[in-house]
Amino acid sequence: MSEERRLEVLRAIVEDYVTTREPVGSRVLTERHRLGVSPATIRNDMAALEEEGYIAQPHTSAGRVPTDAGYRLFVDRLAEVRPLTIPQKRAIETFLSEAVDLDDVLVRAGRLIAQLTGQVAVVQYPSLRRSGLRHLEIVPVARDRLLVVVITDTGRVEQRFCELPGTADGVSALDEVTLAELRARFNAAAAGKRLAELPVAFAAVVEAVGPDLAGVAGAVADLVVDTLGQENEERIVLAGTANLARSESTFEQGLSPVLEALEEQVILLGLLTEMSSDGVGVRIGHENRLDGLTEASVVVSDYGSGGDPVATLGSIGPTRMDYPGTIASVHAVARYLSRVLPS
Amino acid sequence: MSEERRLEVLRAIVEDYVTTREPVGSRVLTERHRLGVSPATIRNDMAALEEEGYIAQPHTSAGRVPTDAGYRLFVDRLAEVRPLTIPQKRAIETFLSEAVDLDDVLVRAGRLIAQLTGQVAVVQYPSLRRSGLRHLEIVPVARDRLLVVVITDTGRVEQRFCELPGTADGVSALDEVTLAELRARFNAAAAGKRLAELPVAFAAVVEAVGPDLAGVAGAVADLVVDTLGQENEERIVLAGTANLARSESTFEQGLSPVLEALEEQVILLGLLTEMSSDGVGVRIGHENRLDGLTEASVVVSDYGSGGDPVATLGSIGPTRMDYPGTIASVHAVARYLSRVLPS
DNA sequence: TTTAGCACTCTCGATCGCTGAGTGCCATCC
DNA sequence: GGATGGCACTCAGCGATCGAGAGTGCTAAA
Asked: Most exposed: A118, B229, B247, B276, by fewest CB within 10 Å?
């Protein structure tokens, strides 16, 4: 009973089960794959694989189904990378390059993944914490209120209102010229800096502007640092939820738990950042600690402009998914997205 | 056979069916509602209601179920407004007021509606076309590229990149001072104007800046007008998709068509703007022309800062929904949202 | 070590009959 | 004329039964 053939049998089972969605028996296995042995032999191998925990049978007299461990082995050692077709690549490229702004790019990336994989797509917004500051804008909107707009070098734009601490004094000081000066100082201080360096740089600005403006400058500085530091203000784009319904019968527990998990964006974000890895990361079934996703697998990849990863995107589907295809699609979209992002 | 009692019977049927989710027969009707007549009498009324098309029976020897027309009659003439409870109102108020920016407000509004109605919530972003321009920001990001940030008076922020038309000439002209002047001119021209007036106002600016800057100014002006004019760039927030799965069995055709309809944001937007009305608008089942939503009802309301509606929000659920409750919730959230929005 | 044969198990689908809910109609009553 | 009680009729749903087929595990032979 060769070790090699046993793995081959596992691969065959996974591939067959993924396409047919039905437990696969020893007979069809010999028919559809050139294994060169009889069903009886396969049965022996299958008994061994079951013993090792890679496959299981839903009930006596049904075929075998891969377990989470089986998929894991498949992904780690058996799956061959299946490159996308040229038309697919071209489609990704053109579709992404038609985007008008960052939001649009991310939405399009999501749609692409959803369509390519036939599953749910998840795209995380470029992390504010991993971004640099490109530009800071300060706009007066009322006597005691400013609107502060932060533009990161990944193209993300965040706005916050800033209540001015000052009294009549503070307010009167805020004419156009003063504001312009403040803006210029902040932007000069932030130029080329990493986010981590901002608090120090801004503190220096607050020092430098003199006592008259210190209050206002301090408020703005705090607000910006606060905005960029908040990990929980991260956002996510979802796409292809309808695809879930199509593979509805796949989820024993029904769609509810999955949909609920997808709505918990905070948790989802945790999952993504946790899985964030250099290459492509795969979590299978119970490897996800999340309750709602124990019947699902998650495939993610980092993306980011030039080398530095700024966020994560991926695809979520039933454990019985086309891993090679999904991995290829996620990887490809992440690459092209990285290329398109403003650097 | 009094007309009055027949309507009372219809109301009873709708209310019972909504709560029990099961066809309701003449016997339970007399038991649960004080109609003061015998089942036999109810049966006569029911026969008449069926004749008129307000109710139907799924199969012989099953109870009756309201038709779309029945729900319509119920909503138009029989439903009593059921005001929210004080705690509910307070919850809405505090939850909305905790939002940090526009995106956050809209997401929170969506969650509220989803939670209150137990259905899917839809919140349209404040329409750019119906907004005024609060501030325009121009940021240089490269030698031949500007980032133009548009802030509307509803707090919405849009950014676009602007490729500069100029040659070496045009580029050299773009120092900080020139840019500041351009920004000041545009903002002065836009102050207090409605969107419709912008093209003219901006054209004047382009005239005024002189030939050196006309190219750049023109490009910026075009971009802004284009950005604000694009109806298709509207956006939508969805919430509570998981609620669908819970009422899964309700949809004969399954969830797919509904989820697909929800993903077609363009179509959904069309529906919302089409339904936009002064009070609360209700579309029941087949009244929605959209294929995916023939088994669903949509309840919407406009919202907007001070009087002027700027967008629409609503709730989508099975035709068998709690109309009075849904209408009350949607209405309430729309009102509070209008109050919280920056004006 | 592989293979053929065989007995065994269990799911799935079809069939059948029953029960109960609900209706429609008719004769009767007020 | 409208309301009511009685009654026969229909039909979905449920459970039980049964047979077919798929698939396995085991054993003995190649």
From this structure: B229
